Amino acid sequence: MHEILRHLPEGARVLDLGSSRGSFDASRYPVSLVRVDLEVPSDRQRDGFVCADAAALPFATASFDAIISNHSLEHFERLDKALEEMGRVVKPSGAMFIAVPDASTLADHLYRWLGRGGGHVNAFRSRDDLIALIEGHTRMRFVAGRTLRTSLAILNRKNQSGRIQRKLLLLGGGSETLLVLWSAIARFLDRRLSTRLSVYGWALYFGEIGEEVDRGTWSNVCVRCGAGYSSAWLENTGRARSGYTCPGCGAWNIFTRDW
Predict the structure, then answer these.
(1) How many degrees, rounded to 5, is the angle at CA 107 between CA 170 and CA 162?
(2) What is the percentage of the chain residues whose pLDDT exceeds 90?
(3) Each residue of 119-157: pLDDT tens digit?
(4) What is the pLDDT of residue 25?
(5) Can you tell me the distance from the alpha carbon of 54 to that of 76, in angstroms, rounded to the nearest whole number?
(6) C-alpha to C-alpha distance for 240 and 257, rounded to whole angstroms
(7) In terms of residue numbers, what domain contains 26?
(8) Cβ pair 96, 130 in contact under 8 A
(9) Is there a single domain that holds both residue 167 and residue 243?
Protein backbone atom coordinates (compact mmCIF):
# COMPACT_ATOMS: atom_id res chain seq x y z
CA MET A 1 0.00 0.00 0.00
CA HIS A 2 2.92 2.34 0.67
CA GLU A 3 3.70 2.48 -3.05
CA ILE A 4 0.44 4.42 -3.36
CA LEU A 5 0.60 6.47 -0.18
CA ARG A 6 4.06 7.93 -0.65
CA HIS A 7 3.08 9.52 -3.97
CA LEU A 8 -0.10 11.25 -2.82
CA PRO A 9 0.00 15.05 -2.56
CA GLU A 10 -0.43 16.80 0.76
CA GLY A 11 -4.05 16.80 1.83
CA ALA A 12 -5.07 13.95 -0.47
CA ARG A 13 -8.12 12.07 0.80
CA VAL A 14 -7.58 8.40 1.64
CA LEU A 15 -10.29 5.90 2.56
CA ASP A 16 -9.08 3.10 4.82
CA LEU A 17 -11.94 0.66 4.38
CA GLY A 18 -12.77 -2.09 6.85
CA SER A 19 -10.01 -1.48 9.39
CA SER A 20 -11.30 0.19 12.55
CA ARG A 21 -7.82 0.64 14.03
CA GLY A 22 -6.16 1.65 10.79
CA SER A 23 -4.15 -0.24 8.18
CA PHE A 24 -1.09 2.02 8.34
CA ASP A 25 0.60 4.70 10.42
CA ALA A 26 -1.14 7.86 9.19
CA SER A 27 1.51 10.09 10.78
CA ARG A 28 3.94 9.02 8.05
CA TYR A 29 1.89 10.67 5.30
CA PRO A 30 0.41 14.22 5.02
CA VAL A 31 -3.00 12.93 3.91
CA SER A 32 -6.58 13.40 5.05
CA LEU A 33 -7.53 9.95 6.31
CA VAL A 34 -11.03 8.56 6.76
CA ARG A 35 -11.43 5.11 8.34
CA VAL A 36 -14.66 3.19 7.82
CA ASP A 37 -15.81 0.07 9.64
CA LEU A 38 -18.89 -1.41 11.26
CA GLU A 39 -16.82 -2.10 14.39
CA VAL A 40 -16.39 1.08 16.39
CA PRO A 41 -12.84 1.49 17.80
CA SER A 42 -11.97 2.71 21.29
CA ASP A 43 -12.34 6.41 22.12
CA ARG A 44 -8.63 7.03 21.59
CA GLN A 45 -8.86 5.78 18.02
CA ARG A 46 -11.96 7.61 16.75
CA ASP A 47 -10.27 10.54 14.97
CA GLY A 48 -11.27 10.35 11.32
CA PHE A 49 -13.48 7.32 11.95
CA VAL A 50 -16.91 6.82 10.33
CA CYS A 51 -19.15 3.89 11.25
CA ALA A 52 -20.72 2.74 7.98
CA ASP A 53 -21.45 -0.23 5.75
CA ALA A 54 -19.03 -0.65 2.85
CA ALA A 55 -22.03 -1.38 0.64
CA ALA A 56 -23.56 2.05 1.40
CA LEU A 57 -20.71 4.53 1.81
CA PRO A 58 -21.87 7.99 2.98
CA PHE A 59 -19.51 9.91 0.68
CA ALA A 60 -19.85 11.85 -2.54
CA THR A 61 -18.86 10.34 -5.87
CA ALA A 62 -15.14 10.66 -6.72
CA SER A 63 -14.28 12.04 -3.26
CA PHE A 64 -11.14 9.97 -2.52
CA ASP A 65 -7.69 9.92 -4.10
CA ALA A 66 -6.99 6.40 -2.85
CA ILE A 67 -8.68 3.47 -1.17
CA ILE A 68 -6.90 0.99 1.11
CA SER A 69 -8.77 -2.27 1.65
CA ASN A 70 -6.38 -4.33 3.74
CA HIS A 71 -7.87 -7.77 4.44
CA SER A 72 -11.47 -6.57 4.46
CA LEU A 73 -13.15 -7.84 1.27
CA GLU A 74 -13.42 -11.34 2.72
CA HIS A 75 -15.65 -9.89 5.49
CA PHE A 76 -18.15 -7.95 3.36
CA GLU A 77 -21.63 -9.47 3.33
CA ARG A 78 -22.64 -7.59 0.16
CA LEU A 79 -19.39 -7.84 -1.76
CA ASP A 80 -20.63 -6.81 -5.21
CA LYS A 81 -22.30 -3.70 -3.85
CA ALA A 82 -19.27 -2.83 -1.71
CA LEU A 83 -17.01 -3.01 -4.77
CA GLU A 84 -19.41 -0.80 -6.72
CA GLU A 85 -19.31 1.73 -3.88
CA MET A 86 -15.51 1.67 -3.87
CA GLY A 87 -15.51 2.37 -7.58
CA ARG A 88 -17.99 5.20 -7.08
CA VAL A 89 -16.15 7.12 -4.33
CA VAL A 90 -12.61 6.83 -5.72
CA LYS A 91 -11.50 9.37 -8.31
CA PRO A 92 -10.98 8.08 -11.88
CA SER A 93 -7.34 9.15 -11.51
CA GLY A 94 -7.08 7.49 -8.09
CA ALA A 95 -5.65 4.21 -6.86
CA MET A 96 -6.73 1.20 -4.83
CA PHE A 97 -4.78 -1.31 -2.74
CA ILE A 98 -6.58 -4.55 -1.93
CA ALA A 99 -5.16 -7.45 0.09
CA VAL A 100 -7.10 -10.67 0.71
CA PRO A 101 -6.39 -14.22 1.91
CA ASP A 102 -6.32 -17.14 -0.50
CA ALA A 103 -9.03 -19.45 0.87
CA SER A 104 -7.22 -22.54 -0.42
CA THR A 105 -4.17 -22.07 1.82
CA LEU A 106 -3.24 -23.71 5.11
CA ALA A 107 -3.15 -20.32 6.81
CA ASP A 108 -6.74 -19.48 5.91
CA HIS A 109 -7.98 -22.96 6.84
CA LEU A 110 -6.35 -22.57 10.27
CA TYR A 111 -7.82 -19.10 10.72
CA ARG A 112 -11.33 -20.30 9.92
CA TRP A 113 -10.93 -23.37 12.15
CA LEU A 114 -9.68 -21.42 15.14
CA GLY A 115 -12.17 -18.59 14.78
CA ARG A 116 -15.19 -20.66 13.71
CA GLY A 117 -15.10 -18.92 10.37
CA GLY A 118 -13.37 -15.81 11.63
CA GLY A 119 -15.90 -13.59 9.89
CA HIS A 120 -14.71 -14.66 6.44
CA VAL A 121 -17.91 -14.78 4.40
CA ASN A 122 -16.19 -14.61 1.01
CA ALA A 123 -13.71 -17.28 -0.09
CA PHE A 124 -11.29 -16.22 -2.83
CA ARG A 125 -9.42 -19.09 -4.49
CA SER A 126 -8.46 -17.64 -7.88
CA ARG A 127 -6.41 -14.46 -8.22
CA ASP A 128 -7.49 -13.96 -11.84
CA ASP A 129 -11.18 -14.34 -10.98
CA LEU A 130 -10.82 -11.88 -8.11
CA ILE A 131 -9.07 -9.31 -10.32
CA ALA A 132 -11.81 -9.63 -12.93
CA LEU A 133 -14.47 -9.20 -10.24
CA ILE A 134 -12.84 -6.05 -8.86
CA GLU A 135 -12.24 -4.52 -12.29
CA GLY A 136 -15.79 -5.27 -13.36
CA HIS A 137 -17.41 -3.57 -10.37
CA THR A 138 -14.99 -0.69 -9.72
CA ARG A 139 -13.93 0.12 -13.31
CA MET A 140 -10.38 0.46 -12.00
CA ARG A 141 -7.58 -1.11 -14.03
CA PHE A 142 -5.39 -3.78 -12.42
CA VAL A 143 -1.71 -2.84 -12.67
CA ALA A 144 0.29 -5.11 -10.36
CA GLY A 145 0.17 -7.69 -7.60
CA ARG A 146 2.24 -9.93 -5.38
CA THR A 147 1.73 -13.15 -3.47
CA LEU A 148 1.72 -12.73 0.30
CA ARG A 149 3.36 -15.18 2.69
CA THR A 150 2.54 -15.85 6.33
CA SER A 151 4.33 -16.64 9.56
CA LEU A 152 1.05 -17.71 11.22
CA ALA A 153 1.34 -14.74 13.57
CA ILE A 154 -2.35 -15.25 14.37
CA LEU A 155 -1.26 -18.23 16.48
CA ASN A 156 1.34 -16.28 18.47
CA ARG A 157 0.50 -16.38 22.18
CA LYS A 158 1.99 -12.90 22.59
CA ASN A 159 -0.78 -11.50 20.40
CA GLN A 160 -3.55 -12.94 22.56
CA SER A 161 -5.02 -12.21 25.96
CA GLY A 162 -6.80 -14.46 28.42
CA ARG A 163 -6.79 -18.23 28.40
CA ILE A 164 -5.34 -20.17 25.48
CA GLN A 165 -7.90 -21.86 23.25
CA ARG A 166 -7.89 -25.63 23.46
CA LYS A 167 -7.48 -25.72 19.69
CA LEU A 168 -4.34 -23.60 19.99
CA LEU A 169 -2.83 -26.10 22.44
CA LEU A 170 -2.93 -28.65 19.61
CA LEU A 171 -0.72 -26.30 17.57
CA GLY A 172 2.05 -25.75 20.09
CA GLY A 173 0.20 -23.40 22.42
CA GLY A 174 1.14 -20.32 20.39
CA SER A 175 4.86 -20.57 21.19
CA GLU A 176 6.78 -17.89 19.30
CA THR A 177 9.86 -20.11 19.17
CA LEU A 178 7.90 -22.89 17.49
CA LEU A 179 6.43 -20.41 15.02
CA VAL A 180 9.93 -19.22 14.10
CA LEU A 181 10.94 -22.82 13.39
CA TRP A 182 7.72 -23.58 11.50
CA SER A 183 8.12 -20.49 9.35
CA ALA A 184 11.67 -21.47 8.36
CA ILE A 185 10.68 -25.08 7.58
CA ALA A 186 7.63 -23.98 5.56
CA ARG A 187 9.69 -21.59 3.44
CA PHE A 188 12.34 -24.28 2.89
CA LEU A 189 9.75 -26.80 1.70
CA ASP A 190 8.00 -24.23 -0.48
CA ARG A 191 11.28 -23.36 -2.15
CA ARG A 192 12.55 -26.91 -2.64
CA LEU A 193 9.30 -28.81 -3.26
CA SER A 194 7.01 -26.08 -4.62
CA THR A 195 4.54 -26.53 -1.77
CA ARG A 196 2.39 -23.62 -0.55
CA LEU A 197 2.73 -23.95 3.21
CA SER A 198 3.82 -20.35 3.74
CA VAL A 199 1.45 -18.75 1.22
CA TYR A 200 -1.27 -16.52 2.65
CA GLY A 201 -2.94 -14.48 -0.09
CA TRP A 202 -2.53 -11.63 -2.56
CA ALA A 203 -1.83 -7.89 -2.58
CA LEU A 204 -3.39 -6.20 -5.63
CA TYR A 205 -2.92 -2.69 -7.03
CA PHE A 206 -5.39 -0.82 -9.24
CA GLY A 207 -5.33 2.59 -10.92
CA GLU A 208 -2.54 5.17 -10.85
CA ILE A 209 0.12 3.94 -8.41
CA GLY A 210 2.97 6.40 -8.91
CA GLU A 211 5.85 3.91 -9.06
CA GLU A 212 6.74 0.42 -10.24
CA VAL A 213 5.38 -2.14 -7.79
CA ASP A 214 7.70 -4.91 -6.61
CA ARG A 215 5.91 -8.04 -7.84
CA GLY A 216 8.22 -10.41 -5.98
CA THR A 217 7.05 -12.50 -3.05
CA TRP A 218 8.60 -11.43 0.26
CA SER A 219 9.53 -14.52 2.22
CA ASN A 220 10.43 -12.78 5.49
CA VAL A 221 7.29 -12.28 7.56
CA CYS A 222 7.49 -11.49 11.26
CA VAL A 223 6.13 -14.20 13.57
CA ARG A 224 4.77 -11.63 16.01
CA CYS A 225 3.35 -8.65 14.09
CA GLY A 226 3.03 -10.27 10.64
CA ALA A 227 4.89 -7.51 8.79
CA GLY A 228 6.61 -8.59 5.58
CA TYR A 229 9.98 -7.39 4.30
CA SER A 230 11.90 -8.04 1.11
CA SER A 231 15.17 -9.88 1.66
CA ALA A 232 16.97 -7.26 -0.47
CA TRP A 233 15.80 -4.47 1.84
CA LEU A 234 16.81 -6.36 4.97
CA GLU A 235 20.26 -6.99 3.50
CA ASN A 236 20.76 -3.49 2.16
CA THR A 237 19.89 -1.96 5.54
CA GLY A 238 22.28 -4.30 7.38
CA ARG A 239 19.53 -6.08 9.29
CA ALA A 240 19.96 -9.54 7.78
CA ARG A 241 22.33 -12.21 8.99
CA SER A 242 21.16 -15.72 9.85
CA GLY A 243 18.23 -13.93 11.41
CA TYR A 244 16.82 -10.42 11.71
CA THR A 245 15.02 -8.34 14.30
CA CYS A 246 11.69 -7.03 13.06
CA PRO A 247 11.90 -3.22 12.67
CA GLY A 248 8.26 -2.96 13.68
CA CYS A 249 7.90 -5.02 16.86
CA GLY A 250 11.43 -6.21 17.73
CA ALA A 251 10.75 -9.95 17.40
CA TRP A 252 13.59 -12.17 16.17
CA ASN A 253 13.02 -14.13 12.95
CA ILE A 254 15.05 -16.52 10.80
CA PHE A 255 16.15 -14.83 7.55
CA THR A 256 15.70 -16.31 4.08
CA ARG A 257 16.30 -14.83 0.65
CA ASP A 258 13.30 -14.28 -1.58
CA TRP A 259 12.81 -16.54 -4.57
Answers:
(1) 50
(2) 77
(3) 889 999 999 999 999 999 999 999 999 999 999 998 999
(4) 82
(5) 7
(6) 10
(7) 1-101+119-148+201-214
(8) no
(9) yes
